[in-house]
Specification:
This protein is α+β, with helices and mostly antiparallel strands. It has one domain: Nuclear Transport Factor 2, Chain: A (Roll), CATH 3.10.450.50. 29% of the residues lie in helices and 39% in strands. It has 4 helices and 6 strands, in the order H-H-E-E-H-E-E-E-E-H. A 6-stranded mixed sheet has the order 2-1-6-5-4-3. A hairpin with a 5-residue loop joins strand 5 and strand 6 (117-123).
């Protein structure tokens, strides 16, 4: 998955920052007006389905969904086109209680001319993922 495509690089840096638990490095990848939709649409993580808009909301997303969990990425395919990349694979999240959730999906990053992420859209099924929690 390694090449110099700006969106792919941003996605790789995002995953590295999550793995290393470096919140500031992760936040620095995003443009000031970036949007995260993870997952896309209405879910318990985003009851209004509008996404997390701007750095303050993105920082809160980190605190609520990344900071307390261990997250492992398994990207099996990556397709870069234009200023976007679609990564296909699974994200395994180990919750503080030890339970694991595996979200199979497509994770799309869009960057601006400066290489900053303007949009992160994660297509995975919340209910299906939660129904498959592993002890």
């Amino acid at each position: 998955m390694a090449d110099e495509h700006p969106a792919r690089l941003a996605s790789q840096r995002s995953m590295q920052a999550v793995k290393a638990k470096t919140k500031d490095a992760w936040l620095d990848l995003f443009a000031a007006d970036a949007v995260i939709e993870d997952p896309v649409g209405v879910s318990p993580l985003d009851p209004e389905g509008k996404g997390q808009v701007g750095k303050t909301a993105i920082a809160a997303f980190w605190d609520q969904n990344i900071a307390l969990n261990q997250i492992v990425f398994d990207i099996r395919h990556s397709y870069a086109c234009g200023n976007e990349v679609a990564n296909v694979g699974a994200i395994t999240t180990t919750l503080p209680n030890g339970m694991k959730a595996v979200a199979e999906g497509v994770f799309i990053y869009k960057v601006n001319a400066a290489g900053k992420v303007v949009s992160l859209r994660a297509f995975w099924e919340f209910e299906k993922t939660m129904a498959g929690l592993i002890a």
